[in-house]
Every structure is written in structure tokens, then in C-alpha cells.
Please model this.
Amino acid sequence: MEIHTVTEGTTEFTCNAYLLDGPDPVLVDAGTMQGVEDVIAERVDDLSAVYLTHQHRDHVGELDAVLDRFDADLYAYDDHPRRTASLEDGQEVDLCGEAYEIVYTPGHADDHVAFVGEKRVFSGDVVVYNDGAFDDGSFGRTDLPGQSRERLIESLETLLDRLSDTVEALYAGHGDVYRADPEGERESVRDVIERALERAERREPKYPDE
Model:
């Protein structure tokens, strides 16, 4: 299976939308980049489903365009007019032949989930590797209405509890993909998430100048 960041290189504010190119290709989040459906079509002939980490606009802005182009199913934790089926905490889903556990991770968004597999995690915005606020382990903002630092801290703890030691890659909603080194020369994904948790626990503003 190949994974492509189909929103890469855009100048628009968007999340990272990931195309999993394998048996029954799927998309994790849709982003806001106009024409993203054309980029997907350059890679695959069909798209079986879109899976949402959460429904903030930067993750769903072009969702309708993608669903219209491919007539794909939609899986989301929270209700959506075009949702095919709901996602539940602890549920196992198959993404291109690989099993992922749904982990409910609110705080940045009430409907936030992460997809935790044996090799990789699609973390949405609950934890990212770098995002302009922190390098080597950051977390989703919690200063806007409906967000909660305390719930996000609990979510990071839950994510660590449910994380397999075999996970080698972190595919976050923003910033770079993080890949650990099997030889141990780079930190593990667990190390990155633990650093994000430590920073969140300080309760300091993530963006102090705002």
C-alpha cells in the first residue's frame, strides 16, 4: 500500500488529506484544496470511502466534491448529512487491507477520532509532529469555543494507552509525517506523543502571541 498526501504543496489552508492507495482505496480527511478530487483521480480509478478524523472545515471543505466525484461512502464519528456509517470508540475498521482501531480523542474537537494500526497512526489534530508552534511533538489547539485542554490531555493519555509499540509512523492532520527509525536512531512515535502530552500538561497557551 502507498500513502499519498493529496493536498501537498497547496497554498490554501488545509489539513493533510491522505490517500491510501491499495485494495479498495480510501481517503482520510478531505481538506480544503480545490481540485483535490482531480489529484485523487490521477492516482486511483475509484475511491471506496472517506474516513474523517473530525469535521472542522479544514478537514471537510472539499468533502462534497470528493464524494460527488467517486460516489464514495463516508465514515464519521459525528452525524453528517452524507454519512454512510458511524465510527465508534474501540471499533476496528479495515483500511486497504490493514486493521485500525478507532480511538475517540476529543479536546480539539468533540467528534475527534484517531485511527491506530500496527504500523501507523492517523492522528488528525490531537497530536502532530510539527506545526509552527512546536517541533518534535505538538498538539491541537484548545483555545477556541467548544475546545478543552483537559479533554485533549486525557485523549493523549488514551492514545498512548492504546498505541502498539510496533507503530513506526505518525500521519497527522498538519505538519510533516513522522517516521521512526527501525534502527533506533530516531525517536519512536510514542516518544513524540509523550512530548506533546508533556507540553499540553503545562497548560500554557499554544500560541502565546494570539
Summary: The helical segments are 36-43, 57-60, 63-70, 149-162, 189-201.
